[in-house]
Amino acid sequence: MTISDLVRGLRRHLVLLAIAPVLGVIVAQLITMLQSPTYESKASVFFSLSQTTDRLDQAYQGTLLSQQKVRSYADIVTTPTVTEPVLRELGLRMRPDTLAKRLSVEVPLDTALLNVSASASSPVMAARIVNSVTRHLAKAVSDLEGPQAGRPWAIQIHVVRPGAVPAEPSSPKPTLNIIIGLVLGVIAGIAAGALKDALDTRIGQAADVSRIKGLAVLGEVPREFAARRHVLADDTDRFGKRAEAYRKLRTNLRFIGVDRPPRTIVISSPHRGDGKSSTALNVAFSLADDGARVVLVDADLRRSSIAASLGLVEGAGLTSVLAGQAKIADVVQQAKRRSTIKVVTSGPVPPNPSELLGTRRMQQVLEELREHADYVIVDSPPLLPVADAAVVASGCDGVILVARAGRTKYDELRSAAESLAAVNAETLGVVVNMTKPSSNDRYYRYISPGRVPGTGKSERTAPSPGPDGREPVPSAATHEPTA
């Protein structure tokens, strides 16, 4: 994974990365509110040896001995020898091992100091416990290490810092908890985004197609809400992102096989609803806008949509020709909006679509249409549910696969390409449909002439006022007819 892939992944999960730290902070605050405050008091005890000699070497050895013994005294703090007298003195109703869990002992390195800490729900009780512990610790050590016959030294114990009543609780710590919650939230957000990418096998953008070996990207069509009502991109905005995407696709098609460019092109998809029919329509109209003669054939004999989208007659069509009920010239219709586009609708629904499309007559129809057109665009059924598209593709120059962003999976697109390879059909490339439009597209702002940024409305230069100070009214001849 490169840095650009990481940045792109983070941008895809910006919402998740923003929500996770907030949730982490909220959870940290809830935990802080639910925790009971705990107060901690600390006392320090110093241990030394009373020497009966003036020799420096013996004094030094005594100092080392006191430092070594302090570590042994630290273990005594949590034993019943100390905790049971403390419980009796303070009248606490708890077990000695429970009190031992509330005590902590620390021995600083190379010192004869012993730091004892005690925690309790009350600041006063915390101070009383730690002071009682130091007193009974001193008594226990004195009983163990008191003056004995023949011993040249005796342990002396000094409480150098008695336990004080704490002013603030030691836990919970709201600031620390919030910081921890924020950091854990960020980590959880990144981990959740990475896990989502690992488990999500759907294609999100054109760059994702590169993961499938042997497939190239021909185009990327952004999502537009107006496309639900208007299949043709020119009906919404001739200079919009969607219309420009199909112009780019048209340009890329012309660079495929410069010596032998594809002229009979099948457009299909792994599943229904990926946008193959709308892609076929817009590719045909885009080629026609550039002056090419185009024949659009609706070979989806199961769920045809071309005739309804263009407002054409659906009574007779491709099935009529394949069944021998009509000639190809009888069913070719003229697209109402482009004089260079001829359309062959699907016709009546047959009981055997795959058999009809696999006949020799289907190949003859495509060859005949190719003789009178620069491009023959064939809208075929999806590849995975039925075999119709693979049957048609075997006799054409190439296939364009349409994948829908956020819906088509890698395995589905790979399986569709493999089904085409099985019949020796050439896959020209992939068109990723319904991708999320970029909010920072400077090129789109460049190609949209006279458009007010952020409004979607065209700028209109106010006409110069006439001699009487009124705006001139445009004549009817200056109005262009709308499509």
Question: Care to describe what's here?
Answer:
The protein has 17 helices and 12 strands. The protein has helices spanning about 5-10, 15-35, 55-75, 80-90, 95-100, 125-145, 175-200, 240-255, 275-290, 305-310, 320, 330, 355, 360-370, 390-395, 410-420, 440-445, and strands at about 40-50, 105, 115-120, 155-160, 215-220, 265-270, 295-300, 330-335, 340-345, 375-380, 400-405, 425-435. The chain folds into 3 domains: about 5-35 and about 170-200, no CATH class; about 40-160, Alpha-Beta Plaits, CATH 3.30.70.1130; about 205-445, P-loop containing nucleotide triphosphate hydrolases (Rossmann fold). The strands form 2 sheets. An 8-stranded mixed β-sheet has the order 5-12-11-6-10-7-9-8, sandwiched between helices. The longest helix has 26 residues, at about 175-200. About 40% of the residues lie in helices and about 15% in strands. With about 475 residues, it is α/β, with parallel strands linked by helices.
Principal-axes geometry comes out as rod-shaped
Number of domains: 3
- What's the average pLDDT? 81
**The named CATH superfamily of the largest domain:** P-loop containing nucleotide triphosphate hydrolases
- N-to-C SSE string, H for helix and E for strand: HHEHHHEEHEHEHEHEHHHEEHHEHEHEH
Poorly predicted regions are: 448-483
Q: Output the structural class.
A: alpha/beta
